[in-house]
Amino acid sequence: MSAPTIGRLKATKSTASLQHRLAEHGIDKKLLMLLPAVVFAVALFLYPFAYGIGLTFQPLSVTQQRWGGGIFANYVAFFKDSFVFDSVWITMRLALPAALFNVLISIPIAFKLRRKFHGKRFMSSLLVLPITLGTVLTAQGLLIFAGRQGWLNRFLIQIGLIDQPLTLVNNYLGVFFSLIISGLPFAYLLISSYLSGIDPALEAAARTLGADWKQRFRRVVLPLLAPGLATTFILTFVLAFSVFPSARLVGDPGGATRVMALMAYRAFGEQIDYSMASTIAIMMGLIELVVIAVVLLWRSFLYKGSTGGKG
Amino acid sequence: MATLTAPRRTPGANVSLPQTRNKKRGGARAPGERSLIASPTTWFVWAGAAAFFIFLIGILVSVVVDSLGKPWFDTWLPENFTTGWYQGAWTQFDLTHIIGVTLIVAASVVVLSVLIGGPASYVLARSDFPGKQLIMALFLLPIVIPPITYGIPLATVMFNFGLGRTLLAVILVNLVPSVPFVIVTMTPFIEQISPSIENAARMCGASMGQVFARVLTPLLIPGILAASILVLVRTVGMFDLTFLVSGPESETLVVALYRAMTSSGGATPRALISAMSVVYTAMMLVILVVALRFINPTQLVAQVKEVRDD
Q1: pLDDT digit string (tens) for A144-173?
Q2: What is the pLDDT of residue B95?
Q3: Which DSSP symbol is given to B38?
Q4: Chain B residue numbers touching A112 (CB-CB < 8 A)
Q5: Between chain A and chain B, how many beta carbons pairs sit less than 8 Å apart?
Q6: pLDDT tens digits, one per residue of A65-91
Q7: Distance from C-alpha of A268 to C-alpha of A262, rounded to nearest angstrom
Q8: Within 13 A of A180's CA, how many CA atoms are on the CB side?
Q9: Which of B245, B265, B261, B272 is CA-nearest to residue A248?
Q10: What is the CATH number of domain A81-299?
């Protein structure tokens, strides 16, 4: 910068200079456009969240008398009341296998559907179809199709594979099926888009150098895909973790599928105990964040950088 | 350097290359040729996909058949067919009202979240400022945290303000995950537009508002469409948040369906619920078919590079 320019800058009013200096740090009028979103996030997300945390320290006197612990009575109740605390394991037992299954099954499907073949468009539209079904129709359909009188059991009995109808709904399996039907399309869409971000030339190069498909997958594609897989796992886990309608409709809401979301809603809607409901809700968020943090930690050891296909 | 390494590497490559290929692929096949017998993984994938589709189609068809069947208990197909359940569902649940509410909520959420999230995603895509990471985290949290976690405190606040069970509460609650979703979806679209286009418009004397209205918005139409459609599908399908704050007058179709299914004593006939679910799916299908005409779902994370048929 030449001397006259500096002189001219200094000659302007001090506010302009301040504005200029701020602009060099990236603070200018453009930031005002961020304002509505920030105000919105603070008013409808941060404030209620903080309020909810505050609420957890104002337990009902019933809770205080029963569990003790003063203002921490809700937390004491959460950890000591086995009826509530068991729901953590119940949720985990459902969400972790479902998310893992969805991711693992989507990898080969995404691979096979990557190349062009007859009816590919039909296949991928069928895979996206469950998004339109919604949890309630899936639940209703599972009850009818896989129930004791349903076509599935009827068919299996007809061909002589089983004598007694299988119990596939109103238990753990029912919710698991429903989680796969709603989660698999989502996992497939994400993984196939991550896969399409990997430059096919890398695989072609490995092939030219004599790598067979196992080596190409293990040494070339998988390391590039792994961060995407971690993200997909997190997102499908979030979906499965907050499962609520299907746990009530196709599950066994009193026993094997008494998930945390159901417990939180029970406290909110049926017992009108807002402070306990907030406690369960916030513990639910915390536990989920712990799982995500573990996956992210693992992901941070993976390859980071260009996959060659983006942009 | 090249002359030094080249002689050392070439013989090794020459020897090892044909060996591995012969060993692993069991025969002298040309590199581009494909085996006629499918590999076990292929069979595994097709079997898994087939099982998934059998369940999917079974679920869909059995609900449709149930919604059309007269009495259907323990036979392969119902004895008679009728469309009476649809009429019944329409009058008993006042579906006109419920679908109206669903569409009003969805449309308001789409418009508001694009208006709030669009400008924010522009700033996040273009500028670098202190505290940007913090703001990003603030916008990402509602997507990652389960809806129930912030939904219950939010619903409590809504009830305290006397907003509980109103249409406004349903719209506001649905905005919480939608605005961040718009931001996440639109940011890559904005990054693809070269800043020099904006600079050129500014040089020609356009004000910032004009740049937005006449230059950026037309270029961003695909991004806005993609974000709107995703938010639309999510809002129509959003159960947890709507369920927490809605009342009888402000419930959307999913919530009405759930309430009908869990109503005490199983007073609602199963076929009536099936008819309602078919209406819901038909509505979603229309939205999705329209959506897929505008966006390719696999383009959302990364630009698709067409894979060669190797």
Answers
A1: 888 777 788 878 888 877 777 777 777 888
A2: 81
A3: P
A4: 42, 45-46
A5: 304
A6: 877 777 788 888 888 888 888 888 888
A7: 10
A8: 21
A9: B261
A10: 1.10.3720.10
Residues of A within 8 A of B157 (CB-CB) are: 47-48, 51
Chain B residues inside the 8 Å CB shell of A309: 302-303, 305
Residue of A nearest to B147 (CA): A242
In A8-39, which positions are buried (b, 16+ CB within 10 angstroms) versus exposed (e)?
eeeeeeeeeeeeeeeeeebeeebbebbebbbe
Q: Which residue, among A29, A35, A40, A57, would best test binding to B if mutated, counting the most B CBs under 10 Å from its CB?
A: A40
Cβ count near A67 (within 10 Å): 18
Please give the residue of chain B at the shortest CA–CA distance from A183: B52
Spatial distance between the Cα atoms of B131 and B126, rounded to a whole number of angstroms: 14
Interface of A with B in 191-210 (CB under 8 A): 192-194, 196-197, 199-200, 203-204, 207-210
Structure tokens given for B278: 């078919």
State the alpha helices, DSSP H only, in chain A.
3-11, 14-24, 35-41, 47-56, 61-67, 73-80, 82-112, 120-128, 130-145, 151-158, 172-196, 200-208, 213-215, 222-241, 245-249, 260-265, 274-299
Which domains occur in chain B, in start order? Answer: 85-296 (1.10.3720.10)
Q: How far apart are CA A131 and CA B261, in angstroms?
A: 20
DSSP assignment of B170-195 equals: HHHHHHHHHHHHHHHHHHHHHHTS-H
Q: What does the pLDDT read at residue B257?
A: 84
Q: Which residues contact A234 (CB under 8 A, 6 or more apart)?
A: A292, A295, A296, B144
Helices B40-68 and A120-128: angle between axes, nearest 10 degrees: 60
Class of residue A118 by CB neighbours under 10 A (exposed 0-12, middle 13-18, buried 19+):
exposed
